């Protein structure tokens, strides 16, 4: 039973590796090559979905004692599949943007530059926010330490005054 599952796992691993490689090539291709690559990736994604369904059926047939391990594997494979589909969607969006730009005669550099500039600014803001939070934490900790020191000094003052009164 588990040998069939492992066979499906191997097929899934090979297929996802191929899909990943092809998704990486999509933005670099042009024209009919790109269309053909997109169609191939769509077919392979469908094959991967079918493999996942087969694997799920196999997991259902496994005895409940050992099903947990296979269920966790299935969750990770489903996550991997989701990531692949998201990557493919991103590459297709880039592909459709290129087609749109070709039709409109827009080179797209200005929007890419703006996007890169916005991402840089966002990253700077996030870094600054983290620094401000860290500075605030340090200030709070320093204030607590100062308060503790004042309390200790107050107790020491009381002790010294009591000792002076005794003398």
From TrEMBL:
Q: Which UniProt keyword terms apply here?
A: Coiled coil, Golgi apparatus, Membrane, Protein transport, Transmembrane, Transmembrane helix, Transport
Q: Which residues form a coiled coil?
A: 31-61
Tell me the membrane topology, using the record's own terms: Single-pass type IV membrane protein; Single-pass membrane protein
Matches recorded under InterPro entries: SNARE, v-SNARE_N_sf, Vesicle_trsprt_v-SNARE_N
Main location, first listed in the record? membrane
Q: Where in the cell is it found?
A: Endomembrane system; Golgi apparatus membrane
One GO MF annotation is: SNARE binding
- Annotated region Disordered: the residues are 103-123
List the SUPFAM superfamilies: SNARE fusion complex (SSF58038), t-snare proteins (SSF47661)
**From its record, what is one biological process in GO terms?**
intracellular protein transport
Which terms in the GO cellular component ontology are assigned? cytosol; endoplasmic reticulum membrane; ER to Golgi transport vesicle membrane; Golgi membrane; late endosome membrane; SNARE complex
Q: Where do Basic and acidic residues bias regions lie?
A: 114-123
Question: Locate the Vesicle transport v-SNARE N-terminal domain: which residues?
Answer: 1-91
PANTHER family membership: VESICLE TRANSPORT THROUGH INTERACTION WITH T-SNARES HOMOLOG 1A, VESICLE TRANSPORT V-SNARE PROTEIN VTI1-RELATED
How does this chain assemble? Interacts with distinct SNARE complexes that contain either STX5 or STX6. Interacts with NAPA and, to a lesser extent, with NAPG. Identified in a complex containing STX6, STX12, VAMP4 and VTI1A.
Q: So what family is this one in?
A: Belongs to the VTI1 family.
Designated name of the protein: Vesicle transport through interaction with t-SNAREs homolog 1A
Specify the species: Elachura formosa (spotted wren-babbler)
Taxonomic classification, please? Eukaryota, Metazoa, Chordata, Craniata, Vertebrata
């Amino acid at each position: 039973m588990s040998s069939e599952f492992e066979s499906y796992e191997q097929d899934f691993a090979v297929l996802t590796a191929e899909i990943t490689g092809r998704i990486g090539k999509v933005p670099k291709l042009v024209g009919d090559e790109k269309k053909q690559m997109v169609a191939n990736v769509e077919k392979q994604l469908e094959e991967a979905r079918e493999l996942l369904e087969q694997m799920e059926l196999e997991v259902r047939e496994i005895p409940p004692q050992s099903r947990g391990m296979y269920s966790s594997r299935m969750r990770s494979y489903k996550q991997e599949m989701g990531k692949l589909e998201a990557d493919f969607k991103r590459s297709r969006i880039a592909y459709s943007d290129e087609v749109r730009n070709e039709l409109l005669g827009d080179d797209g550099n200005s929007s890419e530059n703006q996007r890169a500039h916005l991402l840089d600014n966002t990253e700077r803001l996030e870094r600054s926010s983290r620094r401000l939070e860290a500075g605030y934490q340090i200030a709070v900790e320093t204030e607590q330490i100062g308060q503790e020191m004042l309390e200790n000094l107050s107790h020491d003052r009381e002790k010294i005054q009591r000792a002076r009164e005794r003398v």
